[in-house]
Amino acid sequence: MSDPTLLTVTPTWRPMAGRAALVLAAAIFAAALAASGLRLSEGGGMESALFALAFAFFFAIPLLLGAQQSLLAAGQTRACLFAGRVLGVAWLAAIAWLVGLYL
After folding, report:
1. Which residue, among 4, 21, 42, 17, has the nearest Cα to 88 in the 3D structure?
2. Tens-digit pLDDT profile for residues 75-98
3. Long-range contacts, stretch 4-13, CB < 8 angstroms, 24+ apart
4. What CA–CA distance (Å, rounded) separates 10 from 12?
5. Chain centroid offset of residue 14 CA
6. What's the pTM value of the predicted model, to 2 decimals?
């Protein structure tokens, strides 16, 4: 018996969209790490940008990585999928660190 998934044709946009989701998640993660080192005072006008970054960090990264690992996984290289898993573990570690910081 042959595997039916080997006979299906993967659209060319799917691996590109998966890599784009991974790059976007990594960019949000890097921006959040860079912003965590800033010493900002209240009323500096950066609150809305930081709130948007925090929202993207908590919600967009898991959504992008979930889509990259499941919906857009067909046609991606194993290295690209592994990079998504590594970024997911780094995100979980950052969340655990934040929870431990505020407990």
Report:
1. 21
2. 889 999 999 999 999 999 999 988
3. 8/74, 10/74, 10/75, 11/75, 12/75
4. 6
5. 17
6. 0.78
